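Lab notebook page, bench 4
Experiment: in silico fold of construct C2
Operator: M.H.
Input chain length: 93 residues
Purpose: comparison with the prior construct
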Amino acid sequence: MTAVERSLDDLVRSVGTLETQLGAGLDIRRVRTDTDHLRESLTLLKQSVAAAPPAHRRTPEVEMVPISDAPYDSALWTDAQDEGLGCRNGHAP
């Protein structure tokens, strides 16, 4: 969060320098407004993090499911359809 604040401070200073060089035209005012919005958003983010700090997330352990190498019972597939794969002669189209 501190690094983001420092970067935003640098951005605000750079926009100020640019504004003195180019004048206070519409485009610079838009950029200035955007930097102000970023500052407000960062303040809101800091407040929400302070109110409820994020829990340390652990990567859930993946449960390994063993699959047997034994062939399946062919009766399991008697009513199955091939969903259009292949054709009658056993070769894919």
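Observations: The chain is about 50% helix and 0% strand. Helices lie at 2-22, 26-51.
Next step: discuss at group meeting.
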